[in-house]
Write a structure and sequence with these properties.
- This protein is mainly beta and 213 residues long.
- Strands 1, 3, 4, 6, 11, 12, 13 and 15 form an 8-stranded antiparallel beta sheet that branches. Strands 2-5-14-7-8-9-10 form a 7-stranded antiparallel beta sheet.
- β9 and β10 form a beta hairpin.
- The relative contact order is 0.27.
């Protein structure tokens, strides 16, 4: 490579992953034709990695409160272009519904601040005042702020998250809430997992479905 030619960020991330060999747990299978989970059981099971927090199955749903950025990662690698759907409700007035996509399947907060490896999607964050789609840093200047819409406690919302090419789109009940066109998309090893996340709110997730596009 000629001197002075910038190295793409995706190459830098790949080199770091190779050197530290820790971006993604080894042996995670792909989703093949798809993956779904209705949580109709008593234990979370081996398809997920719990990084902390009180994640548990209750009444056929995935429940969490106060996980403080300790995600529950799906241990299935995502395809490059994908659709992820899920039901979720918050029982807290502050709303604050949170998931991650295209992360490393292992990261969690080790301090008060959290350096994500993913796109972070937040509906009703900051005391139900902001809807955010962020590229690794939910407080970053490059985050996308969505249309004004508050989370209503007790209401079940249907999320649909899709990436095609560099465009990531988030729908809530068929209404586009957030959209980002990333010229250097997070992809490949270290950016190929979906995760449920939570800070303090009382969240209930159900009916997860992952479909290759």
């Amino acid at each position: 490579m000629k001197m002075g030619v910038p190295i793409p960020n995706s190459w830098v991330r790949l080199l770091v992953c190779i050197l530290v060999a820790a971006c993604t747990p080894q042996g995670d299978p792909g989703i093949a034709a798809g993956f779904s989970d209705d949580f109709n059981r008593t234990q979370i099971g081996t398809a997920y990695k719990k990084t902390g927090g009180n994640w548990r199955i209750e009444s056929g749903q995935l429940h969490v409160k106060g996980a403080k950025n300790h995600p529950l990662w799906l241990l299935r690698t995502l395809p490059r272009d994908v659709r992820v759907e899920l039901d979720v409700r918050s029982e807290s007035p502050e709303g604050d519904i949170k998931v991650e996509i295209f992360g490393d399947g292992a990261s969690y907060a080790k301090h008060d601040s959290y350096a994500a490896t993913s796109y972070v999607i937040i509906f009703g964050g900051w005391n139900n005042s902001h809807n955010v789609l962020a590229r690794m840093d939910e407080h970053g200047d490059d985050r996308v702020l969505g249309k004004t819409r508050k989370v209503e406690p007790g209401v079940v919302y249907r999320f649909r998250i899709e990436r095609i090419g560099g465009i990531l789109t988030v729908w809530v009940d068929e209404d586009i809430l957030l959209k980002m066109d990333d010229s250097d998309p997070l992809e490949g090893r270290g950016h190929d997992h979906f995760g449920f996340n939570n800070w303090q709110s009382d969240l209930w997730f159900d009916n997860l479905k992952v479909t290759p596009l």
